[in-house]
Amino acid sequence: KLKRLLVSRNLIQGINLKTPLKSLVLLDIHKNPIKQVNFGKVFPNLIQLYIDECLLKSLKGINTFANLKHFKCRKNAIDDSSSVVLSHTSIEDIDISDNKMKTLVPFLNLTTLTILNIKGNPLTDESFQIPKSLQDQKFLAKIPHLKTLIISNTEIRSVSLIFELFPNIENVDISYSQVSNLDDVTQFVKLAKHLKYLDLLGN
């Protein structure tokens, strides 16, 4: 039974199969003119999805991939706002580097997420703000126990903001950003009790 399907660098605009591919666990469709990621029902057991360099503008529909764990969507045009809160129960790592994201809020309901690579997005200190409409205990209790955050090549100035959202963080790459306040860095290191790795290169 087919488990891995590699169809990158084609002209695929959408996926609409009559019969689900239940045995497929890996799908690589990068560099295709795909605009939506809402076709998970035809891949009910997919674990790895690579959809880099396509035409995605949103991650809406990711919940249709019921068993997805590893998701790469680098170099698209994704710009989901704080009004979009993604929902998923198994995803473990997301690489959404080099997109147009301005907020971290869409990822805060992904309770199984442990690795987030969001480097090269137009993020600032304001990107950590949670809208008042979401500031209730039910939402805040669901913020994922993120272990690794790659947030380099951004406009972020304050490292300590990371701890406020992700108190269990272990690895942080915030290289080539705008960090310049040593007191803020020291405060972050003191607060982040589980911190093992911090990359501040090029700030």
Question: How would you explain this protein's 3D organization?
Answer:
The chain is mostly beta strands and 203 residues long. The protein has helices spanning 137-140, 160-165, 182-191; strands at residues 4-6, 26-28, 48-50, 70-72, 93-95, 115-117, 148-150, 171-173, 197-199. 10% of the residues lie in helices and 13% in strands. 33% of the residues are buried. The mean pLDDT is 93.
Please write out the topology.
Elements: E1 4-6, E2 26-28, E3 48-50, E4 70-72, E5 93-95, E6 115-117, H1 137-140, E7 148-150, H2 160-165, E8 171-173, H3 182-191, E9 197-199
Parallel strand pairs: 1-2, 2-3, 3-4, 4-5, 5-6, 6-7, 7-8, 8-9
Mean pLDDT: 93
First-residue to last-residue Cα separation: 50 Å
Strand content: 5-15%
The count of helical stretches stands at: 3
Main structural class = mainly beta
How would you describe the shape?
Answer: elongated
**Weakly predicted, low-confidence segments:** none
Question: Which range best describes the helical content: under 10%, 10-25%, 25-40%, 40-55%, 55-70% or over 70%?
Answer: under 10%
Structure summary, number of beta strands: 9
Please summarize the sheet with the most strands. 9 strands, parallel
Radius of gyration: 17 Å
